[in-house]
Design brief:
Layout (H helix, E strand, L loop, with lengths): L2 E6 L5 H10 L4 E6 L11 H17 L4 E4 L2 H12 L6 E2 L5 H7 L4 E6 L1 H5 L1 H10 L4 E6 L3 H6 L5 H17 L4 E4 L8 H8 L4 E3 L2 H15 L1 H10 L8 E5 L6 H6 L7 E6 L13
Parallel strand pairs: 1-2, 1-3, 2-9, 3-4, 5-6, 5-7, 7-8, 9-10
Pfam families: Asp_Glu_race (PF01177)
GO biological process, one term: peptidoglycan biosynthetic process
Organism: Marinomonas algarum
Length: about 280
């Protein structure tokens, strides 16, 4: 059966992995949390591009059928570099600006992202393309994704950050929030409590999964035909969790996986270092 590689700087991409596993439970999933290099939000474009190439080599060695870059920051600044050096299908994460602008009742939309994503030309072009008559505000947090990786000891900081962001959004009468970092849906319930029922919250896992299915169908038509026609009879796939840092964080990563029975193992992996890849600690 096909094996899919999913990467992020930490636990955030598990929101994407969970959705993929729910849609296609027969697929084997290999998750790489690049915690040694986290947070991505304070790295340069050159550092992130170099790092993503190293992760791509890892997945090629693991013989995956496709790579899912389950990180908004890595997608906006480095996914083109990865696509240029691999023949594998590479699926990225696109902030859900289009559906947000379509459903917003008051035409007041907020996009919450890491600083790198917030400043990216890719995000701003996406907003210009789909905003129409909506007012779109970009908000960013330099700490929220990193704090989510430190859950649960960081819960009080997360609640405080979300409260401050929510107060700003309420003051701007925002009625639709785009979570433009895959970490953020892990604490979606805290956003819902802070913003109330009048604000719709959109996250990207469904769209990424649909795109993955389209790319797999194109690249592996025979295998996907079997999956779509025999899905109920196929055995469940396995989920393996990897970290570039150490195995001490594995209990936190495991806790975010919705199908605990599918986890087949955990391991630490070493990514080859490239020029300009030194992390800021």
């Amino acid at each position: 059966m096909l094996k899919i590689g999913v990467l992020d700087s930490g636990a955030g991409g598990l929101t994407i992995l969970n959705r993929i596993h729910h849609a296609l439970p027969c697929l084997d999933l290999l998750y790489l949390a690049d915690e040694q290099f986290a947070p991505y939000g304070d790295k340069t474009v050159e550092q992130l591009q170099s790092r993503l190439l190293a992760m791509g080599r890892f997945f090629e060695e693991e013989q995956v059928a496709a790579i899912v870059v389950a990180c908004n920051t890595a997608t906006v600044v480095a996914i083109d570099a990865l696509r240029s050096v691999t023949r594998l299908p590479v699926i990225g994460v696109e902030p859900a600006v289009k559906p947000a602008c379509r459903i917003s009742k008051r035409r007041k939309v907020a996009v919450l992202a890491t600083p790198v994503t917030a400043k990216s030309a890719r995000l701003n072009k996406l907003i210009d393309l789909w905003k129409a008559d909506s007012e779109v505000v970009i908000l960013s947090s330099a700490t929220l994704a990193f704090d989510i990786d430190a859950w649960p000891k960081s819960k009080s900081r997360i609640v405080s950050t979300i409260h401050c962001l929510s107060q700003e959004m309420k003051a701007k009468h925002i009625d639709t929030l785009v979570l433009a970092c895959t970490h953020y849906p892990l604490v979606k319930s805290i956003f819902e409590q802070a913003l109330g029922m009048d604000c719709d919250i959109i996250e990207p896992s469904e769209g990424v999964t649909s795109q993955l299915i389209r790319r797999l169908t194109s690249a592996y038509p025979l295998e996907m035909h079997q999956i779509t026609t025999e899905l109920q009879r196929l055995p469940s796939g396995a989920i393996e969790l990897c970290s570039s840092k150490n195995i001490d964080s594995m209990s936190r990563l495991r806790a975010w996986v919705t199908d605990q029975d599918a986890i087949c193992g955990t391991r630490q992996v070493a990514l080859s270092c490239l020029v300009g890849e030194t992390a800021k600690h």
